[in-house]
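Work Package 3 (structural annotation) set out to generate three-dimensional models for the target panel prioritized at the project kickoff. During this period the team completed the workflow that converts sequence records into C-alpha cells, so that structures can be stored uniformly alongside our sequence database. As a representative example, we reproduce one entry of 416 residues exactly as it appears in the project archive.
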Amino acid sequence: MFRHYFVATALILGSLVLTQSVMANVPAWESWRPVYTPQPYAQPYQQQRREYAPPRQGNPVYRQTAYGSALPFDDSLECGYAQALQLPDQCIRKNAYTREGLQTQASYLRRVPAAQKVGVGWGNISNAALLETVRELLNWHDGIAPGTLQQRFSLREISSWRGDAKAEYTGYFTPLLEVRTHPNSEYRIPIYRKPNGQLAQLSHADIARRALGGKGLEVAWTNDLANLFFAQVQGSGIARFPDGKEMMLEYAGDNGRTFSSIAAYMKQRGIKLRNYGNEAIRDWLRANPQRAGEIITSNPRYVFFKLTAGLPTTASGTRVIPGHTVAVDRNYIPLGAVLLAEVPRIDANGREIGRDWRLLFAQDQGGNIKGAGRLDLYTGFGRQAENIAHGITGFRKAYMLVRKPAYGGNTNMAER
C-alpha cells in the first residue's frame, strides 16, 4: 500500500513580492477563510504524536522470546492473523523497501561508535551488535531458506506500559499544503523560515499578528491554516505549487515555546465536537473561521520550515520509508534497531482489512514518543496516509531482532 510515494523535484523560488493589500496591518489568521476540499475526508486523524500523553511510570517488561518449530507453509493461511512465532519466514513480508531499510540501517550503524551501548533503558546493546544483526538480516532477506530466521535471531519482546506483551502503536504522516510563491487574496497565510536572534522566540500569536512580516522570511504562502498547523505538529509537510511541482517543508526549528494541545483548549472553552481528533478539529475550524486564529494560537509554539527536495529526514539522518520507518524512544529502543512487528493492513478509508508481519526500522524519534513500548509508524503523505495513520493506533505485538552469538565471527555479543 506504500509503494506510491513521491520523489519531489527541486524548485528554485523567485524573490517573494509582497503585495500592498496583503501586507496590511491585520493578522492573517483573523481574515482566514474556510477552505473546502472537493472530496471530504472520510476518517478522523489519530491523536497527534506531540499531543500524546506520557506513559505511566515504571520499568518496561523484558522477555526473551524464541521462535517455536517452523510449521509447513500453507498458502491458504493468512499469515497476518496466525501466531507469528509458529509460522515460517514466508509470512514476513519482504519487498524493495525492507531491503532499502536494512541498507540504510547498516549505513547509519557504520557511522556511529561501534562499542557504544545504546538503548540503555531497555535494549542495552552495542552498535556493533546491531550492525551484525542487520548484516545477517540482509543475508536472510536475499534468499536464505525458510526457517532460518528462528535459528539465527533472538526476539526481544517489546511491551508497553500496560505490561501485556504488546507495543503501543500510533502513526504519523506528512500533510499536503497547496501553496503559492507570492501572496494574493486567497493565499495570504505565510510560511516562515527561522529568523535570527530574538525574532525566533516570538510567540505564535505575535507571529500571527505579522511580527515577522516584511523581513523576507516567507518561503511560501498557503490558504489552509488548519493544514499548516497540522504540518507544524507533525514537523513536516508537502508544499504543492500551481504547476504540480512539490517540495518538502522540512522542520527548521521552533520558537522554543512549550506545545499546548488545541483540543484541550477547545474542551476548556466548551466547544463540543463529535470527537477531538484532528479531522473533527479541522472541520470545526473551517466552519468557524472567525475563531480559527484564537484556537490555533492558543498553542504558543510556532514551527519554522525550510523548502527541500526529497522525503523528510529522520533523526538518524536517513530518508523516511513509508510503512517501515518507525519513531521510538531511543533511551529504550536504539536507532539502528530492526523490529519484527504486527502491522494492520489499512485500506484507503482507514478500515483494517488484515494484518501483516513486517520489518520496521528504528530511524526516528518524537517529542512525546516515550517508553520502551511506544512505536510511531510513518505512513506517507497526503490524504490516504492520514487515514492509514489513524487506523494504525492500537496495541499489537512487536519484537527487536538480535543476531544470536553462534552466527558470525563474534560469539560474545552479550558483552557488547
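Confidence is low (pLDDT under 50) at residues 1-26, 28-84, 410-416.
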